[in-house]
Specification:
Elements (H helix, E strand, L loop, with lengths): L1 H18 L6 H24 L2 H17 L6 H14 L5 E4 L5 E5 L17 H13 L4 E6 L7 H20 L8 E5 L12 H7 L2 E6 L4
Parallel strand pairs: 3-4
Antiparallel strand pairs: 1-2, 2-5, 3-5
Length: 218
């Protein structure tokens, strides 16, 4: 048990040093940290049994798995974020980087959909046009589109409506050259509100589409 504690302490020090390397890119930090965490997980298995060979093998496998998992924030992703921020400036669309390195577009109802409808508004089209262009320039990314509704109506109405909103967004992108195999869709109905459904403004905020773009780490 003492050997295991010492091993974890040493690797933890290594992780701290890795996170503080100023010359490393965000991609290198993400991949390197994932590899180190994987090495910890794999190494602990062998260390706990006292088998040095198992510990070494486990650490190597764990490092490979850790480096290959999750998403990375590459220069392409940073460029796409900057382009979408420029394309959506002043529209109310929020563009951000998530904690797990995905690019997120949060499109509110005043840009996207009216109550009980899933046809795309005219002011959303130029945004999706620009978005499709950035996706076609970076074909390794995967896209997830999630539709949401306000609480008006029943689940029997809201659940398929949210899916239809995501599907309409996907179909628009596909019509502009984005491969459908890159796009997953989902609908959450009114289950994930971000504002108070008892107010007009709150319902408008909840009636939205979220688009996530991810570049898998290799």
């Amino acid at each position: 048990m003492k050997k295991t504690i010492v091993s974890l302490s040493v690797i933890a020090i290594g992780l701290s040093g890795l996170a503080g390397c100023a010359n490393m890119s965000e991609t290198q930090k993400t991949t390197g940290t994932g590899a180190a965490i994987g090495a910890v997980a794999g190494g602990v298995i062998g260390a706990a049994t006292g088998d040095r060979k198992t510990a070494a093998t486990g650490a190597a496998i764990g490092a490979a798995v850790g480096a290959g998992g999750g998403y990375m924030w590459s220069k392409h992703m940073e460029k796409q974020k900057a382009e979408m921020e420029q394309a959506t400036a002043g529209t109310g669309v929020s563009v951000s980087q998530t904690a797990d390195n995905q690019l997120k577009l949060d499109i509110p109802s005043d840009v996207s959909f009216d109550t009980n409808r899933y046809d795309i508004k005219s002011n959303l089209r130029p945004i999706l046009d620009r978005f499709a262009t950035t996706l076609n320039q970076n074909p390794v990314t995967k896209v997830t589109i999630i539709g949401h509704t306000d609480s008006t109506g029943t689940d029997a109405i809201n659940n398929p409506l949210s899916v239809n909103r995501a599907a309409a967004t996907r179909d628009y992108l596909v019509a502009r050259g984005v491969s459908p195999s890159r796009i997953a869709i989902d609908g959450r109905g009114s289950r994930e509100p971000i504002a108070d459904n008892n107010t007009y403004d709150g319902r408008a905020k909840n009636r939205r589409v979220e688009i996530y773009v991810a570049e898998p780490a290799v």
